[in-house]
Every structure is written in C-alpha cells, then in structure tokens.
Design goal:
alpha/beta, D-Maltodextrin-Binding Protein, domain 2, 3-stranded parallel β-sheet, 7 helices, 10 strands, elongated
C-alpha cells in the first residue's frame, strides 16, 4: 500500500501518543523518475554547485507531528530517529554541517501535490508510486518496507525469536497485500490465516482476541501498537527476502536536478554500510522490532 495515503488519514481521528518561487528545476527538464535524472560528476555535487531552495542551506521537509521511530521527540532537527538520521547522513555527504540544515513543516498530502516546493527534499515515509512520480521526482529508495508481526503483550508469541515459532499461531492479514504473501511464503502457518478485506478488520480481530497475531507492513505495525491496539507489541519483523514491492523515497519538486546528487550520496551510504547501520539502530534495536531468524 502507498504509505500513509490511508494509514495517517486515521491518525487525525486518533491522535498518536503519538506557484513561482521554488528550488530550481533541472535545466534539461529531467523526468520524475530518479533513474532518468542523468549522470552528474562528483564535482557538480559540491555544495556550491547545488540547486538549492536557499543558497548555502539544505531545506528538508517533513510533517508535524513527526512520528517515532522515524523521528524522535517530535523534533526532526535532533538527528534521532531513522529518517532524521538518514537526512543528516545525506546532508553530510553533500557537504552540509548540521547547522546548515533547516527543517520545514510540510503536510504529508501536500508534499506530493503538483507545483512548486518550499524545500529541497521531503522525507516523510512517502512511498514511491507511479502516480506520484508523474508530478514530483523521487530519489532512489532509502528504505524497503518490511513486514511486522504484531501480537499482545504476555502472549506466547510476544517473545519469539524465529519465524518458525509462528507456525502454530492464528494469524490475521489483509487480502491482496504483500503481508499475505509473506505469511504464505515465509511463515507457512499450520492453520490457514484469517484473511480480511480491510486492514482495520484484521486489526480488530487482534484487539478482540480472535487471532494470536497480525502481519502488516512495519510502518503500520508501529502505528497499530502506538494508537490502535492497547497492550500490543511488535514481536519482530520478517527477514527481508528482496520481495518488497514498496520503497520510501525522498521527494523533490518535479525535475529538480538535486536528486542526482542525493542519489549519489545514498549510493555511498548503502555501499559503505552506513545506511544499514542507521536502519539497525532506529528500526530494529531501539524500536523493539528485531528481525526474526
């Protein structure tokens, strides 16, 4: 599913305790996909060569409130939380000091609306989709969405360490999702999973103790445990098999050539292992969502 297109429409009802001036577009009119942004030399990606919304400063957009574990303490500027840490890691690769990064409040739905942007890029759990890519430009993916297992505190599945320990569980899942595919291909429960047309029905099945666990994408799992099902916990996340069909990308005004330099920075973070370490720190260890073996 497209992250937060429906998920955070619910958040408005249940508070989580959770156009002319803009960054300069690419001179060659590059398309909305990052792959077509063209090659840029390292020299062209030095800070003084970048097309920026404000000269000498990197302006990064995200929504307010900024939710954990993507951000910490509703403060994107502290460098804590997965997306804050990723943004600052990219900024460092582009030559910016932390004091040269400014955060702008950008409501989620307006971030990918057509038109001029008052930021250099937005980072806010925005899924890369073909429809959105018609009107904005996305970076390469910085996060492959994993599947999370949510159960109740105190249940025998709350402290599991392996996928095989879920085979005897009664599991709820939404029809037609990558979560259902993960249940069928990775967990292979001995009892056929309960399949619901709507995700909220699967969540209610857990809340009403009709099932032992639900499998949803990890961002949704964080929301379920924080706002939807009291006393629920993330037992863990399923191993990444490379089958994820959903990625989060940084979002730019359509045609902004800065995307090429950001992709270069992301490539360096991936190849060095730094991006994986950031994910391990904020989406696994401190978030209490260990990868099941």
């Amino acid at each position: 599913m497209a992250r937060r297109s429906t998920l955070f429409a619910l958040a408005g009802a249940a508070a989580l305790t959770a156009a002319a001036a803009a960054c300069a577009p690419a001179k060659d009119g590059s398309s909305s996909s990052s792959s077509s942004a063209g090659a840029t030399s390292s020299a062209a990606c030095t800070k003084d060569q970048l097309h920026l919304y404000t000269a000498g400063r990197l302006t990064v957009g995200t929504d307010k409130p900024a939710y954990e574990p993507w951000f910490k303490s509703n403060d994107p500027s502290n460098g804590q939380g997965f997306e804050s840490a990723v943004a600052y890691a990219v900024a460092t690769k582009l030559g910016f000091a932390k004091t040269e990064v400014k955060w702008a409040t950008v409501p989620f739905d307006s971030s990918y609306a057509p038109g001029a942007k008052k930021f250099d890029f937005d980072i806010n759990q925005v899924s890369i989709t073909p429809d959105r890519a018609k009107v904005v430009t996305f970076s390469d993916g910085y996060y492959d969405v994993a599947q999370g297992v949510v159960t109740m505190k105190g249940s025998k599945y709350a402290s599991i360490s392996s996928v095989s320990q879920l085979q005897g569980a009664k599991i709820a899942v939404q029809v037609g999702t990558t979560s259902l595919t993960a249940v069928q291909n990775q967990i292979k429960p001995s009892t056929q999973a309960k399949v619901f047309n709507d995700q909220v029905d699967a969540v209610n099945a857990l809340k009403n103790k009709q099932v032992d666990a639900i499998v949803v994408d990890l961002p949704t799992a964080f929301y379920v445990t924080a706002a939807q099902v009291p006393n629920s916990v993330i037992a863990g996340q399923l191993p990444n098999t490379g089958a994820s069909t959903e990625q989060f990308g940084m979002l730019f005004q359509k045609g902004n050539s800065l995307v090429t330099c950001v992709n270069q920075a992301l490539g360096q973070l991936k190849s060095s292992g730094e991006l994986a370490k950031i994910q391990q720190q904020w989406l696994t260890s401190s978030a209490g969502a260990p990868v099941l073996k």
